[in-house]
Design goal:
Elements: H1 3-24, E1 33-37, H2 39-55, E2 60-61, H3 63-66, H4 72-82, E3 85-90, H5 104-114, E4 118-123, E5 146-147, H6 153-167, H7 180-193, H8 200-205, E6 208-213, E7 226-236, E8 242-250, E9 257-262, E10 270-271, H9 273-276, E11 282-288, E12 300-307, E13 310-317, E14 320-321, E15 329-330, E16 341-347, E17 350-355, E18 358-363, E19 368-373, E20 379-386, E21 391-398, E22 408-415, E23 420-423, H10 428-431, E24 439-446, E25 449-454, E26 459-463, E27 472-475, E28 484-490, E29 495-500, E30 504-509, E31 514-520, E32 531-536, E33 542-546, E34 549-556, H11 559-575
Helix pairs in contact: 1-7, 1-11
């Protein structure tokens, strides 16, 4: 059944379910966070914190702005009881009056403790716990607290948001419509409107998605800049600790690389390049979540870094980065030097590296590199899939051996045992691939589907019916003529993202057959925002890196969008 008919079924099911939900007339909590503060010394900060939380779609109760009619004590008590998180702003002398039973701050904190709310203390400059603190407030000393810092205001807000998020957010309050028939009519109208635009129903009913700019700062709050960010990678262990790595080319010297490291969820970064040696521009990072290259240390994570000068190992342990020359360790034997490696890819314990030298392959069994594929032009990207026993390895770049024959090329590993590769026979003219148009990146959707992006807005989709069938290639409309540099498939959501020059971001759906321009990055300094690579770690942690820009994926869900997703999944399953 066509996508349009599927959309009609989804919207109709959504409308009917929404009517049933409205009949139940849910009465959900109104707020996510209750802010308690002393007006003297804390009012201004309270309003600033409230504004920052609301930017992130949290509903915040502040007595001045949100107090309903009724007895003050009863209303405040009810709001604390109905709100899961209690943000306590402690200004200088804020707890000095709590020895008086009628003190409002005492009553608010006492109610929050009694209701077992998620109490998050924010300590302003000059605050100290008094010696004669009431016994019922002594537990405040044991809570995880956060110090307010004017210089690192964004970092402080980020920590407060994380503390609230870990406790959980309440459901949105259900909005009761005047007539259930109007809801049915709205759903059916949206369904038939989507006949002309199959993505319309998802854009209207689905979760809100955006790409937010991120400024990289050090521990002192100073910005860290690079001429071109090339790659970013986040690692996580079963213990829940997270570490981020960001690599690129220095802004003041294009011959030098830069490597940053964070272990505080992007609050601040440390430049570790000089600690481990200079290797030139850094192009790609890959880390393993197992004891690869390990020496028995269960908590150590190991990775590989690609640079123009070669390929190197990275080693670090939980809680500390190992900063000595041995951790910037070249492979022995090494792959070709100065090969301008652009991408790395893992499959099991095998490493593939691609660049101007073609494709190099490192295996644990051989404990060394082997040259697998020589190409007359550069390989821009390489990806892996499948299993270590049956690997699927693809590479894209530029083919041909002359200036008049240097269009895009796709390479595939067809015989892993003998390390045999083939160049796919593409109908380049029929696909509209012009002279000098190269392919830049490739995404594996499943064993029988791949999507390739490249210059001049090229999106090529490959599909086969089964493992023994030939590949068929199709040009997909991208709605842009900009050079596309990266593509990523978010498997959990069935969504593709592509990025390119002039700050263009594309989103693809329906197995790569439908694309639209999602966003154009416009930098404040009017410099060219060339987007180089996009990565997702899971379905909600996405990053885009490029020239003069670093973007983070932000997905805001509501009960409305979650209901839509819950209804859409089974309908699509039945009709497809």
């Amino acid at each position: 059944m066509s996508d349009q008919i599927v959309n009609v079924a989804i919207a109709a099911a959504f409308a009917v379910a929404f009517v049933g939900l409205l009949i139940l007339t849910l009465t959900n909590r109104r707020h996510d966070v209750f802010i308690s503060y002393r007006r003297q010394g804390g009012a201004t900060i309270a309003r600033l914190i409230k504004a920052e939380f609301e930017k992130r779609s949290y509903r915040v109760f502040l007595d001045v702005a949100d107090l309903d009619r009724g007895r003050f004590d009863r209303v405040i008590s009810a709001r604390i009881r109905q709100t899961p998180s209690f943000l306590l702003i402690l200004s200088e002398g804020a707890l000095n009056s709590t020895s008086q039973p009628t003190d409002w701050l005492l009553q608010e904190v006492r109610e929050a403790i009694h209701r077992r709310r998620n109490i998050v203390p924010l300590l302003l400059p000059g605050f100290h716990y008094p010696a004669n603190l009431p016994p019922e407030l002594e537990s405040l000393r044991l809570l995880q607290s956060y110090e307010f810092n004017h210089t690192l205001f964004d970092g402080t807000v980020g920590k407060l948001v994380a503390a609230v998020r870990r406790y959980g957010r309440r459901s949105r309050r259900a909005v009761v419509l005047k007539s259930s028939m109007s809801c049915v009519g709205m759903g059916l109208l949206l369904a038939f409107a989507s006949l002309g635009d199959p993505d319309l129903i998802h854009d209207v009913l689905g979760a809100r998605e955006e790409w937010a700019p991120v400024e990289i700062r050090d521990s002192l709050g100073n910005p860290i800049r690079a001429d071109l960010w090339k790659d970013i990678f986040w690692t996580a262990s079963p213990n829940g600790w997270h570490k981020g790595w960001l690599a690129g080319v220095r802004s003041w010297d294009p011959r030098r690389g830069i490597l940053l490291y964070t272990d505080n969820l992007n609050d601040s970064w440390e430049d570790v390049t000089n600690s481990v040696g200079e290797v030139g521009p850094i192009t790609s990072l890959e880390f393993l979540h197992s004891r690869f290259f390990a020496d028995g240390d269960a908590e150590r994570q190991d990775g590989v870094l690609a640079a123009y000068s070669g390929i190197y190992r990275i080693r670090y342990k939980q809680g500390s980065f190992l900063v000595n020359r041995n951790n910037w360790e070249p492979f022995t034997p090494a792959p070709p030097a100065n090969a301008n490696f652009e991408r790395l890819a893992f499959i099991g314990h095998d490493i593939y590296a691609a660049g101007w030298a073609g494709i190099q392959h490192w295996t644990r069994a051989d404990n060394g590199w082997r040259h697998e594929l020589t190409t007359p032009r550069e390989i821009r990207s390489i990806v892996t899939g499948g299993t270590p026993d049956r690997p699927e390895v693809w590479a894209v770049g530029r083919g041909g051996d002359s200036k008049s024959n240097n269009r895009g090329a796709i390479y595939r590993l067809v015989d892993p045992a003998n390390r045999a590769w083939v160049q796919e026979a593409l109908p380049l003219d029929a696909l509209g691939v012009r002279e000098n148009d190269a392919f830049s990146d490739i995404a594996l959707l499943d064993p029988n589907t791949v999507v390739v992006v490249g210059d001049s807005g090229l999106i090529i989709r490959g599909r086969r019916e089964g493992a023994a069938d030939p590949w068929k290639w199709q040009r997909i409309e991208s709605r842009t003529s900009e050079n596309l540099m990266g593509v990523h498939f978010v498997r959990d959501r069935g969504t593709l993202w592509a990025v390119g020059e002039q700050g263009v971001i594309l989103r693809g759906r329906r197995n790569g057959t439908s694309w639209r321009v999602f966003f154009h990055v416009d930098l404040a300094d009017k410099s060219e925002p060339k987007l180089a690579r996009i990565r997702f770690h899971g379905s909600n942690v996405g990053w885009i890196v490029g020239r003069n820009v670093l973007l983070r994926y932000v997905r805001t869900e509501s009960w409305f969008s979650r209901l839509y997703e819950a209804l859409a999944a089974p309908v699509r399953h039945v009709y497809r």
